[in-house]
Amino acid sequence: MNWDEERRRFVELQAYGPDDPDGSHTAAVLTAYFEAERLRDSCRTFWPRLAGVAVLWILLAVTPPAVSPRAFLAGLLMVGIAATWVGTVQWRARMKLTDLLQGNQVPGS
To answer: Is 15:27 a contact under the CB 8 Å cutoff?
Structure first.
């Protein structure tokens, strides 16, 4: 069983019930879920590509004529910034979904 299968759970949502008279909470949960899944799917292709770019950049830097040390560090910094940004966006999407499922966040905020 992989990590995704361990974290899966079933959630029953009831729109227009006593806890959600206008269905906004259900809509917010579904929107957050599909956004998190879209990001997770996009990251499945992003991470290997980013790793490939990093490896190519390192290979380019160690072969003559090598790039300058500043250019090498700037390239690694850009790779690090991209990884940090994508990881943060994906983490925030998961946290938003978790907060909505636990009732800690008001829909629309």
So the answer is: yes
